Every structure is written in structure tokens, then in C-alpha cells.
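Q: How would the C-alpha cells look for this protein?
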Amino acid sequence: MKQYLMTKNSRSSLLNQLSLAAIATIFLTSTMAEAKSCEIEKMKLGTPELEVQVTFFSQEKSQNAPAKDDGAQVSPENSSTDKGSNTNSASNATTSPSRKALVIVPPTGRTNYIDRRYAKLFCKAGYDVYIMDQWTNDEETTTELEIHERFYGQAQKAISIVINQIPKNSYVGLIGTSVGGLHAVIAANYQERLDAVFVITAGISVAEVVVNSDQKAMVYLNSERKKNYNLKTDEEVLAAIGTAFTYEPTQLTERYKTRSLGMVIGLQDKTVPTATQKKLEEYWKPKKVINYKNDHFWTIVKAWLFTSDEILEFFEESYNSQQAKTTK
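A: Here is the predicted structure in C-alpha cell form.
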């Protein structure tokens, strides 16, 4: 029966986590009352072949709704403000949008409460915010080595569709968390129209994250591939992925050097292993780095709970710096 007994340290750890959860609940509830009312609209962008479902946040839809661009299809639906009142569709926008925009790429499990809180925080600060809720084939599952090429390639196409909704000459920021962070790291090199990228618990190489993650789906995938492809070691799996994957950030054009970069690192992360996050830090040499001595989940929670204002400040400094350059 010994294995069922909690040690003093484990009881203390559990109490600390419960206390943090309670604090988070109180804090998040209070911020709902503080934020200005942002209008929220569900939209479908893209084409039937690649449809991207987006939640769009803006302070005034009549001024900030996205315009149709580059032939992408825009289908507004279920428009509402924070208070639930109906609003006009995006296609009725008649004046200039905000000059600041932010794209949010959520973690596994799609859009969550924290993503929406980031969106409202940035909306309050004058950003048009696009949460990428889902896109065509974003949950494909197979043990094929080629799935990573399709999965990450499709994500970059989806990000491009969203960015194309943002008016030209606007400031464009990108936040990604966990797997959304991996998409954001690739985007920092792959996308042409980005001014700043901030990631939370993301690392490189993508293949190393896939092979070494403790996420159950990744552990199972690694095991099945060794059986199916007659691979003996993790190194062999890494090499096999490399032969079928062309979106590895370090193999792309180094556009990241022209962007403002920031990241949150989980120092006890096993889902996106800390070693891969530190590799990204060394590769990027980002302007802003925030460390938490926590695992994957609690790093994500603490990043919002304790440093969301710092993340906003990072983008504001980047935006102001860009504006200063353009006015010279």
C-alpha cells in the first residue's frame, strides 16, 4: 500500500498547484471586468480546399474588420460583442482597419481560455486579433513519416491565408504556444509578412520535439514507427523524419533575423523538452526570454498569469520601434 501514500513533498506540491489554480481563477475572473468590450466574430477564410476558421477580435468592427484580400473567401458568422449583442458583418467594413494586428496559433486541443484572454488583452491595446481556431486536416493522424510535411506545410498555408486578411503596411505579430509555437517558429522563417514572433514552450528541431516528447501520442508514434520502419533507435527515427520533412526552421531562409523575437521557456518541460527550447534560444538569440521552473502545462499557465503584460509590452516596443524607423 506504500505506493498509494503521499509524501510530505508531494502533498506540498499538490497544495501549491491547487493554490496557484485558485489564484489563477480569481485573477482571470477579475480581468474580465477590466477589459474594454471587444467585438468578436467567427469567420471562415480561404477556399473549400483549405478552410481556416478564425475568431476575430476588434474594438470597433465598423473600423477594424478585415478586408477581403488576395482572393481569399471571407464568411462572417455568429458575430457578437463580449456582451453577446449582434453586430454587422465584416464585409460591411467601410473605414481603415487598425495598423496593428496579432495572429494567435493555439496549442494542441485548439483554442482555449488562455488564447481568448490573450486576444482580449491585445484587442484592448488596439490590435486586431485573429485566433486560428482550426483549419482543414489539422488533426490528421498516421504513422507515416510524410505526415509532418503535410501537417506543418498545411499550417503555414493557413497562416498565410490569415495574414493576407491583414491590410498591407500593417504591423503583424504572431504568438504560438506548444505545437502552435512550433508553427510560429517555422513561420518566423517561412512567412514574408511578420514583424514580431513570440513563442511559449516551443523548440527546435521539430523532429527532436516529435521524437523526445512525453506526450502520449508522440510516444506511441515513435514506438510504432520503430516497428513499421524497422528502426532501432531514436537517432534512426530522427534521420528518417529528416528525409521527409522540409519545414525544419534551421533549413529555411533565415528571415527570423529581421523580426523581433521573444519566448517563454519551461525549465522542467518534457512535452516540448527543455533542451529543444534552449536550442531555439541559442538559434534565435531573442530579445525577450522568460524562464519558468515548471513543466509544460504550468509554464503555459504562468506565462499568461504572471507575464502577459510583459508579452504585450514586447510587441508594443517592437511596434513603436518599427514606427520610429518608418517616420525617419
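The CA atoms of residues 45 and 74 lie 5 Å apart.

The first helix runs from residue 8 to 34.

Upvote if useful.
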